[in-house]
Amino acid sequence: MGVYTMIAAVADNNAIGKDNDLLWRLPDDFKRFKALTTGHKIIMGRKTFESFPKPLPNRFHIVITRDREYKIEHPECQVVHSLEEALEVTASEPVTYIIGGGEIYKMGMPYADSLEITRVHGEFEADAFFPEIDPEDWTLQAEVFHPADDRHDYSFTYRTFTRKRS
Questions:
Q1: Which ranges form a coiled coil (predicted)?
Q2: Which fold has domain 3-163?
């Protein structure tokens, strides 16, 4: 069985999105997301998938929806109807990324082996949130601060967590 990594940019108040869009534009975080997820299968909800102008290149998309009639005519996409089905489809992968949105992160938290979190320093109004990261369950492995600059309106910190095993 492979490793499941949840990857998200999360504000200090756990906000991740509003009206099916991101709350900020952080070019270096986009580059990191692309570098980490390229070549892997990515699991997401339908609304997250529909927020992309087209499927992300060099990644296989597994899209979760309750809508049994929902179809995506693209060779790099597969529709499933539950997180459990998505996990079955990816069971033989060495690493699979769970990329959102809020409901998928909430459902995925018990299955995640690691978290790649970009903590965006600020509080934002949102309608989608990342679940709390319980320090009883997770160990912070790495942390890299990125200051605000002419390309980034907000400072942020990349944080890598691994699940504590009992």
A1: none
A2: Dihydrofolate Reductase, subunit A (3.40.430)
